[in-house]
Each structure stands twice: as structure tokens, then as C-alpha cells.
Design a protein that fits this description.
2 domains; D-Maltodextrin-Binding Protein, domain 2; globular; about 25% strand; Fructose-1,6-Bisphosphatase, Chain A, domain 1; alpha+beta; about 30% helix; about 280 residues
């Protein structure tokens, strides 16, 4: 799986188990903040469009995550949805954290309990650990490179669904669907025509976690940011699934379009999506 390529150094390394433990702890603390705000009255501001929102809880949760991780790893760097890229005082380090404090802000704003905290750690060799946490359901999806995927400590595996027509799939749409960017609506219609059941749930991170859990047979989206997919991509891969860009190439988080499946339907879905 291709990710960001950066020069590896020997400074501030940590073993994957320690990284995962820190990520779980930070996700849990951020989740408390989100639960406190969920279903209450608060202000939401638009970013790129009317449905692309940010709240005080996005920002507070992200700062909480960064603060918790910095306590344990003061030399690491961070890429967050709200704060952007921050390099450590020592410069570029071997390990970088990729953070989405609230994936599914639109759902959060409308009191829909389908949103998550997403935290991943990477080095120049790729993704090392990933955590996706829904604080409303208390479901903590975790993965460690080479160590499998778990949900609240129990191993997960992708589904065995063998054909696209029998599949339940999740789909992500960009916010500006009125312009049909990247032919997203056309792609949706093609896949719907196969008989597959399509759900637009509103959280890329949770969609990926649900593929890992076998709840969805697959998921695709034409636009994403690294913080949307980093943790979930590792979670799917370690559960035995397949994660690529839309053209079937190894996932590159600098390239638009992600497709992830249980592996059995990947070629069929890729054919339907691409026409």
C-alpha cells in the first residue's frame, strides 16, 4: 500500500504496540469531547460548501489528540484536518500522525450517530497503526501492521460475499454533487444497475471500518483527504480486505479515488465503477 514517502530518520521511533496504545487512548479522550457535544446546540461553520461543516468540537477534539500524543512522542509530526501539517522542532521525523478528529461532521451536526475519530501513524515504509472510534456506540476499531484488525479486542475479518449483485456497499460523495465531479453520479448509477445495495452513510472512516467488520462488502469514493482514509485503509487491509485507488493501483493518498472491498468483488466493482 503506497502512502506518503518521506526520508526515515532514527529519532523518536516507537514500536507499533506503543503507538497503537497511544492512539487508542487519544481516540477515547477525543470521543468524550464529541459525546459531550453530540445532540446539543452549537455553531457550525461552512468550509468548502454548504454541507462541508466544521464545529468547535472538531477543533477541540483535534487539539486534545495532538496534546495527548505529544506528551508521549514530543518529536513526532502531525497532519490534521483542522490544524494542517505541523513538523516537530527537530524537523521531519520518522513517524507522523494523521488525524481526523471528527469524520462525519454533517452527521454530528444533525444528531446522527454515525461519525468517528480517526488516527493513524505512518513512517516512510507505510502505515503502522490505525484507530477508528465511534464514541456513541463505543466501537473501537484497531489495526497494527502485520498484526490484524480488532473491534474492541476481538479479531475482525472481511465478508465472504462473492458477487457484486449480492453486496451491500457504502459510497462517499463529494460535497459539490450538483456538478457531478469525477462522474460520481454516473458511477453510482452504473453500480446500482448491477443490483448491489448502495448506502451513503456520511463517514469515510467508519465506512472503511465496516468493510473490515464484514458489514459492507465494499466502499468507494472519488475524492478524499489522507486523514479520511489513513486509519481505515490499514484496518481493512489487516482484516484481509483489498484497498486500492479507483483504477486498481496500490493506494496512494495523494491520488483521488479510493476503492476497498473484501477482495472477492474487487475486480467486478472496479469494472462497474470505471465503466
Amino acid at each position: 500500500m503506497a502512502t506518503y514517502k518521506r526520508q526515515e530518520t532514527n529519532m523518536n521511533r516507537a514500536d507499533p504496540g506503543t503507538l497503537l496504545d497511544a492512539a487508542v487512548g487519544a481516540a477515547a479522550e477525543a470521543g468524550k469531547i464529541l459525546v459531550e457535544g453530540f445532540g446539543t446546540s452549537f455553531a457550525a461553520k461552512t468550509k468548502s460548501g454548504v454541507h462541508d461543516l466544521v464545529t468547535e468540537y472538531d477543533k477541540t477534539a483535534e487539539q486534545c489528540i495532538i496534546d495527548k500524543l505529544k506528551e508521549r512522542f514530543p518529536g513526532h509530526s502531525f497532519l490534521g484536518e483542522e490544524t494542517g501539517l505541523s513538523e516537530s522542532a527537530e524537523g521531519k521525523e520518522a513517524i507522523r500522525w494523521i488525524i481526523d478528529p471528527l469524520d462525519g461532521t454533517l452527521n454530528f451536526c444533525h444528531a446522527i450517530p454515525y461519525f468517528a475519530v480517526s488516527i493513524a501513524a505512518e513512517n516512510s515504509g507505510g502505515l503502522l497503526v490505525g484507530v477508528v472510534y465511534n464514541p456513541v456506540t463505543a466501537e473501537m476499531f484497531t489495526a497494527r501492521k502485520g498484526g490484524g484488525t480488532q473491534l474492541n479486542g476481538k479479531p475482525l475479518n472481511v465478508s465472504m460475499t462473492a458477487e457484486l449483485k449480492d453486496s451491500v456497499l457504502a459510497i462517499g460523495f463529494p460535497f459539490d454533487t450538483t456538478r457531478d465531479p469525477d462522474h460520481c453520479i454516473t458511477r453510482f448509477a452504473r453500480v446500482a444497475g448491477t443490483g448491489a445495495q448502495l448506502l451513503r452513510m456520511g463517514s469515510t472512516a467508519l465506512n472503511l471500518a465496516y468493510v473490515a467488520a464484514g458489514r459492507f462488502a465494499g466502499f468507494w469514493e472519488t475524492k478524499f483527504f489522507p486523514w479520511d482514509v489513513a486509519a481505515g485503509a490499514l484496518i481493512v487491509a489487516e482484516a484481509g480486505g483489498m484497498v486500492t485507488n479507483l483504477d486498481g493501483s496500490d493506494l496512494d493518498m495523494e491520488t483521488d479515488g479510493i476503492m476497498t472491498t473484501n477482495g472477492h468483488i474487487h475486480a467486478e466493482l472496479r469494472s462497474a465503477v470505471n465503466g
